Amino acid sequence: MKRTILRAILLSLCIPAAMAQVTVSVANDTPATREQIQKLFEVMQIRQQSHLMMDSMQKQMQAMTTQTLKARHPEITAAELARATKISQDSLKDIPMDAILDDMIPIYQKHLTQTDVDAMITFYSSPTGKKLMQQMPEITQEAMQVSYQRMQKQIDAVMQRIEDSAKEGQQPTQKPSATSPTKPD
């Protein structure tokens, strides 16, 4: 009888604890709310960072484009370079960063729980998180400069393949006449 009472007491203590575990697990799996993601974007300064990143990318892309154009077309004039620069700048200005960020909210919600986002908000609100966000534009710019050298080699190779392909397309092809046999390869 004492064992039955002891089991009942232990069971009555364990069930709420087990239910709490289930409740916590379910709560941890709840997707982040739109408001949480917006708060995360705010503490991470995502909008400002995105605009700074776009400015930095624009400068890097412009440098790569100018260098590539000069290398591929040494006869290019300053006016033509200026026109290419203007086209590039105008194209990047048309990118709707705010709308893109709004479109990203459901993606964040799909992959992050409320608990995840709360922890991230706590981190990015901390002095270390704030420092990371302050340093991110410089880190990104330096990383882009380092990667630029590797990317330039790839861009040069792609440009060469495009030019080679264009030259092959411009070469006249001889069609065999109906009366003359074709030469074997």
Word description of this protein:
With 185 residues, the protein is mainly α. It has one domain (29-160). The chain is built from seven helices and no strands. The protein has helices at 2-28, 34-43, 46-72, 78-93, 97-111, 114-125, 127-170. Helix 3 packs antiparallel against helix 4 (78-93), helix 3 runs parallel beside helix 7 (127-170) and helix 6 packs across helix 7. The protein is elongated, with a radius of gyration of 30 Å. Residues 1-26 have low confidence and may be disordered.
CA-based gyration radius: 30 Å
Q: List the uncertain runs.
A: 1-26
What count of helical segments does DSSP give?
7
- Broad structural category: mainly alpha
Number of strands: 0
Distance between the termini: 98 Å
Share in β-strands: under 5%
Please give the structural blueprint.
Elements: H1 2-28, H2 34-43, H3 46-72, H4 78-93, H5 97-111, H6 114-125, H7 127-170
List the main descriptive attributes of the protein structure presented here.
185 residues; elongated; mainly alpha; 7 helices
Q: What does this entry show, briefly?
A:
This protein is mainly α. It has one domain.
